[in-house]
């Protein structure tokens, strides 16, 4: 494994000598290729970044400083203000094999542009008259190193590619749809599958009708289930989560159906954010938050576990080198059921709807325990799609969503939201579809 | 100015080696930036300082852009970046210009940040209210130097502040060119409005008169005029030139983008491509006159004029964006805009707006509004949405208020490029517009 050129030790020693016994140095190097395609322009960006971040202080205050290049141990540093800083102690990092695709070269300029162009062609062949308005592919890799004055030392690498697509369908006014994805390697993108997904969205937007009130069964495609789960993150993360979620318990003590198992795992094999340690150098692990409907514990960083029941895990993320590390989901997902294909779930619906995607921002009132999400999809009768639905809202109580999960599919999918949030297709009863 | 010692002549000579065709756009963009943040007092770490510098080398040829960026300002990485954007490999390596900048070694401090939360709390008390709010205050500074093979633009700098307030009813934020007593009162007034409206029920669906305060006009102008007239947005629907001459709004609307008239501290003489800015008439008498364009789009069309190229960071290519929007004042005193309205809504605060460039659908989200009854302000209503098609909405303006005044500022994040945007506007009266309840669907 290659490491960054400078070591943080010199800066760490200088900070401690300045009278700041709590000090942490984070170094990062990265490179990325970004390719953008629109109807009129093509853009290719190659970026190299090298940056650092320091947190330091004493019992009366602390500061955060970040910059690019290499840190100068002599500063200048800000004066410590605000609250004192707490840093993690070193702990055992479980064995972890670095994935081989970390060493794959970044996608080339021509290769990436060909991929984006093929997406446009596939879309036009799926839905004649449809076109890509914008396509942006970014492929990047980075190496980082962290050390703190408690003796913690860690190095890690990351490899992430993101793809953003915006498309317009035929007709006037043209319906539009977008997709944002993250994966480990850009070469794993499947243009035909993505084009089908966009074409489905555009066709539904063009032809779909607003439904009347319907309280039948709903089949939630991963894109819809993921957005619901993302809206519930405050109920699952941090020391106050346990109290917030307790109101959702039923008479058996369950917050969800027995089909619901919720996991956060920073070292999820194949995950876009897979890493052995988090943004503070704390080992990542699998944390089961909800098991067969029973709430086990919230997702807790090491310092939060002192004030809440539960085992901590490495879940402190740095969104970038400019950002202060914050606890949050790494790969948070609903456990899939390996033996349940989506077709079987669809076939089991006598009367209801199959909701494929979310069409805008949702509303979550966690105090009242309600949500509303704008969605599109199909009405379903006797296990078959009968008519497209657009302009609909999926509404209900959060408790009804969690406890109404009747079956879980095997098609676990992740979307980049607040961390990577994942879900398979869910069959849910007790929610309402409104026009 | 950090770039005063930059050998711009050497950079220009080096860039000239990759400009092989007469129409090539080649430039180097150097930036240094500093953000100082005072987080909420219960957060650790305390003062947060981010300092960075770097450059981007760009070649634009026949509608294609190549950009190479680095997080340093030095000769060798510059020559490497040049090689990455050059379309023909030079037989010899590109020369390494001597690039030396004075280090940014001033102690990072911004004592003015610490004074704002206390000043806002004092202002809140003067409104006879008190409630817990968490403030995050930031100072943003940026220095920019653009060098082309033939022209070297003057170095530019920007300095401004952002304030975010988190209360139990949600988050509110704005930008200020300077932090003074007026800034504290602006924050306090906005928070008082949100606090007092926190339990107001949303209004029933309504069509009729709406009077928009200058801060709300600024959001409408940004979303419905500026974004709609960006060359890259216009291109999604066809030829951007075709917009010129179209009557988009009521004849009483004159809208300009003028970065040179922005508040002191963020005023610019050139854009982020080194092109001189202009007082650009987006709408004159309601008719589209000059869409927003950067060098790339101006190259593709003789009708489009560059000077509105902005970039959120050296790592992203520039795009056509507005900087400082102005709506020229009308002839109606602001207080008189309510006169004659038996029923309607006064919209005093907007939380966000959105435009679908293909359908022209525009939505403006308002956290609260005041009902107008018989020409006077009446009770407060809760969250609501003003919506309509841009072309229809803008023709429904029946009166433009006076005077025009600084109408607030905010971040615009189109295409992932976060940029500050400023506005000067009077109040407006619209008739026959649709307002629907916001919040949870019923």
Could you outline the blueprint of secondary structure elements for this entry?
The complex is a heterodimer of chains A (435) and B (442).
Chain A: H1 9-17, E1 22-38, E2 42-58, E3 61-68, H2 109-126, E4 131-148, E5 153-168, E6 176-183, H3 191-207, E7 217-220, H4 222-231, H5 241-246, E8 262-265, E9 286-291, E10 294-295, E11 316-317, E12 326-327, E13 331-334, H6 342-347, E14 351-358, E15 363-365, E16 370-381, E17 384-397, H7 398-403, E18 405-408, E19 413-417, E20 419-423, E21 426-428, E22 432-434
Parallel strand pairs in A: 7-14, 13-20
Antiparallel strand pairs in A: 1-2, 1-4, 2-3, 4-5, 5-6, 7-21, 8-9, 8-13, 9-10, 11-12, 14-16, 15-16, 16-17, 17-22, 18-21, 19-20
Chain B: H1 8-15, E1 25-38, E2 47-61, E3 64-70, H2 75-85, H3 111-126, E4 134-147, E5 156-167, E6 170-176, H4 181-196, E7 206-212, H5 214-226, H6 231-237, E8 255-257, E9 280-284, E10 287-288, H7 295-300, E11 309-310, E12 319-320, E13 324-327, E14 332-333, E15 343-347, E16 352-355, E17 361-366, E18 369-373, E19 376-381, E20 384-389, H8 390-395, E21 397-402, E22 405-412, E23 419-425, E24 428-437
Parallel strand pairs in B: 7-15, 13-23, 14-21
Antiparallel strand pairs in B: 1-2, 1-4, 2-3, 4-5, 5-6, 7-24, 8-9, 8-13, 9-10, 11-12, 15-18, 16-17, 17-20, 18-19, 20-24, 21-24, 22-23
Helix pairs in contact in B: 3-4
Please report the number of helical segments of chain B.
8
Number of helices of chain A: 7
Content-based structural category of chain B = alpha+beta
The most extensive contact between chains is: A-B, 55 and 53 residues
Helix coverage percent of chain A: 10-25%
Number of domains of chain A: 2
How many domains is the backbone of chain B divided into? 2
Please state roughly what percent of the residues of chain A sit in beta strands, choosing from under 5%, 5-15%, 15-25%, 25-35%, 35-45% or over 45%: 35-45%
The total count of strands of chain A amounts to 22
The count of strands of chain B amounts to 24
How would you describe the oligomerization state of the chains in this entry? heterodimer
Low-confidence runs of chain A (pLDDT<50, min 5 residues)?
none
Give the C-alpha Rg of chain B.
24 Å
């Amino acid at each position: 494994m290659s490491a960054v050129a400078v070591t943080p030790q010199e800066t760490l020693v200088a900070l401690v000598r300045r009278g700041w016994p709590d000090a942490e140095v984070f170094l990062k190097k990265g490179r990325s290729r970004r390719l953008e395609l629109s109807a009129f322009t093509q853009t290719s960006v190659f970026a190299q970044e090298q940056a650092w971040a320091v947190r330091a202080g004493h019992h009366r205050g602390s500061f955060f400083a970040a910059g690019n290049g290499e840190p100068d141990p002599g500063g200048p540093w800000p004066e410590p203000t605000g609250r004192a800083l707490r840093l993690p102690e070193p702990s055992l990092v479980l064995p972890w094999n670095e994935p081989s695709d970390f060493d794959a070269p970044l996608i080339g300029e021509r290769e990436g542009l060909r991929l984006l162009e093929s997406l446009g062609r596939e879309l036009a062949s799926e839905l004649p008259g449809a076109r890509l308005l914008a396509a942006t592919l970014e492929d990047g890799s980075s190496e980082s190193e962290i050390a703190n004055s408690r003796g913690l030392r860690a190095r890690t690498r990351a490899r992430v590619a993101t793809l953003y697509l915006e498309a317009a369908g035929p007709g006037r006014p043209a319906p539009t749809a977008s997709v944002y994805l993250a994966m480990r390697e850009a070469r794993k993108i499947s243009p035909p599958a993505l084009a089908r997904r966009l074409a489905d969205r555009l066709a539904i937007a063009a032809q779909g009708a607003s439904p009347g009130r319907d309280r039948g069964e709903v089949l939630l495609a991963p894109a819809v289930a993921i957005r619901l789960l993302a809206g519930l993150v405050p109920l699952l993360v941090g020391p106050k989560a346990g109290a917030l979620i307790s109101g959702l318990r039923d008479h058996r003590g369950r917050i969800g159906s027995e089909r619901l198992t919720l996991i956060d795992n920073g070292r999820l094999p194949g995950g876009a954010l897979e890493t052995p340690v988090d943004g503070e150098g704390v080992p990542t692990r699998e944390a089961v938050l909800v098991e067969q409907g029973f709430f086990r514990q919230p997702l807790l960083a090491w310092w939060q576990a002192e004030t809440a029941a539960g085992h901590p895990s490495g879940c402190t993320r740095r969104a970038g080198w400019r950002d202060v590390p914050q606890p949050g989901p790494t790969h948070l997902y609903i456990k899939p059921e390996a033996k349940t294909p989506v077709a079987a779930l669809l076939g089991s619906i006598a009367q209801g709807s199959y909701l494929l995607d979310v069409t805008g921002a949702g509303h979550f009132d966690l105090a009242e325990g309600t949500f509303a999400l704008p969605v599109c999809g199909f009405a379903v009768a006797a296990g078959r799609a009968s008519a497209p639905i657009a302009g609909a809202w999926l509404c209900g109580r959060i408790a009804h969503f969690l406890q109404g999960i009747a079956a879980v599919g095997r098609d676990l999918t992740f979307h980049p939201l607040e961390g990577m949030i994942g879900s398979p297709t869910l069959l849910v009863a007790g929610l309402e579809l409104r026009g | 100015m950090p770039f005063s010692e930059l050998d711009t002549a050497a950079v220009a000579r080096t860039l000239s080696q990759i400009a092989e065709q007469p129409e090539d756009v080649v430039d180097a963009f150097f930036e240094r930036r500093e953000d100082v943040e005072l987080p909420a007092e219960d957060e650790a770490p305390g003062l947060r300082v981010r300092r960075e510098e770097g450059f981007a080398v760009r070649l634009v040829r026949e509608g294609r852009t190549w950009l190479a960026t680095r997080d340093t300002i030095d000769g060798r990485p510059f020559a490497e970046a040049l090689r990455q954007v050059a379309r023909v490999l030079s037989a010899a390596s590109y020369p390494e210009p001597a690039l030396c900048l004075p280090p940014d070694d001033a102690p990072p401090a911004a004592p003015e940040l610490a004074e704002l939360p206390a000043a806002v709390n004092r202002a809140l008390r003067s409104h006879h209210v008190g409630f817990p709010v968490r403030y995050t205050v930031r100072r943003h500074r940026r220095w920019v130097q653009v060098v082309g093979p033939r022209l070297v633009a003057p170095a530019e700098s920007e300095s401004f502040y952002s304030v975010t307030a988190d209360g139990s009813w949600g988050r509110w934020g704005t930008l200020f060119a300077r932090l003074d007593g007026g800034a504290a009162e602006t924050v306090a007034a906005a928070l008082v409005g949100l606090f007092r409206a926190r339990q107001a029920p949303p209004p029933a669906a309504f069509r009729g008169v709406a009077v928009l305060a200058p801060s709300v006009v600024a959001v409408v102008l940004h979303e419905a005029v500026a974004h709609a007239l960006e060359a890259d947005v216009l291109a999604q629907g066809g030829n951007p030139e075709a917009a010129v001459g179209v009557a988009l709004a009521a004849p009483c609307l004159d809208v300009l983008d003028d970065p040179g008239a922005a508040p002191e501290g963020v005023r610019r003489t050139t854009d982020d491509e080194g092109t001189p800015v202009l007082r650009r008439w987006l709408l004159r008498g309601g008719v589209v006159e000059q869409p927003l364009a950067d060098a790339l789009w101006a190259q593709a069309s003789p009708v489009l004029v560059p000077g509105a190229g902005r970039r959120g960071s050296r790592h992203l290519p520039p795009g056509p964006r507005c900087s400082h929007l102005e709506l020229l004042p009308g002839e109606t005193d602001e207080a008189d805009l309510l006169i004659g309205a038996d029923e309607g809504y006064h919209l005093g605060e907007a939380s966000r707006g959105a435009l679908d460039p293909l359908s022209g659908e525009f939505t403006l989200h308002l956290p609260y509004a005041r009902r107008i009854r018989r020409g006077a302000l009446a009770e407060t209503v809760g969250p609501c949405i003003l919506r309509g098609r841009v072309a229809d909405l803008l023709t429904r303006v029946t009166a433009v208020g006076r005077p025009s005044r600084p109408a607030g500022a905010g971040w615009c994040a189109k295409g992932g490029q976060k940029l500050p945007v400023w506005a000067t506007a009077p109040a407006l009266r619209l008739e026959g517009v649709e307002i629907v309840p916001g919040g949870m669907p019923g």
